[in-house]
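Q: Predict the bound structure with guanosine-5',3'-tetraphosphate.
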Amino acid sequence: MVQWYPGHMAKALREMEEKVKLVDLIMVLLDARIPYSSLNPKLKAMFNNKKILYIFTKVDKADKTLTDKWIMHYSVNGNKAIAVDARDKKTVKIVEKEALELMKEKRAKDAAKGLKPRPIRTMIVGIPNVGKSTLINTLCGKKVAVVGDKPGVTKSQQWTRINQTLELLDTPGVLWPKFDDEKVGLNLAITGAIKADILRNDDICIYFLSFLKEYYPDAIKNRYNIEILDDLNLTLVKIGESLHFYLGNKDVDIDKTALYILQEYRNDYLGKMTLDRL
Ligand code: G4P
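A: Predicted complex:
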């Protein structure tokens, strides 16, 4: 897990501010399953009057009804949200169209001043694991070496020409998610956005079961043929029994069971879900 110290955070923010000055449009990547929890609220202040295209990644893992609602929620104040599978080549056209639409006014003004249209300069920003490298590779149509999730690591900036319309800064902005809200931390842990060395698997899983009980009550029944009981700890034990996950002393291995359920969710065996609700 990347450790964020106030000094690191300040440095990452400063570097991001420098990059932001270079671009016309910022692409803020959010995980479609957690469009609230994967946003670092510090970003907004930094972007002040830049146009923002919110790109929800991993739309293939999220609940469509909720994705539509979150798109509406973020498509305000002249900004726009879209939801994509960052691995899909079709994403290039979608991003290009939205970028042009967002920059339409500015480009019309430039044209009126007799300025030749130039490609829209853009950069990608997001928390670790949200799909920044994947989207950069998809947009560029090739493997681009990205200095990964090491906030504070600098490299000379390079523009990559995606097509006639778009130029992309090849180093994404990386920010750690905001953590003070316990629910946000749990959502990030469930999706695997953070390696939870602070949180225990059984605590994460119990929270996940309570969420499923409320919003996707059939998910566990369909997969393990077990009802989610009011007693969530007992539910976890029953799932462990059904999987034959035992410790040497014949007790159910709760940690193994919890991790297994979480991994099954991350690997799409429990269905498409959105954890952040509006
Ligand atoms: P990052 O640069 O922001 O850190 O993220 P990166 O592109 O490395 O993506 C993290 C993982 O998420 C990768 O899986 C990647 O394939 C997956 N991913 C990115 N975008 C999408 C998407 O739109 N849909 C789906 N289904 N997956 C996406 P990985 O290499 O298998 O890593 P991991 O999941 O095993 O950690």
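A: The first strand starts at residue 25 and ends at 31.
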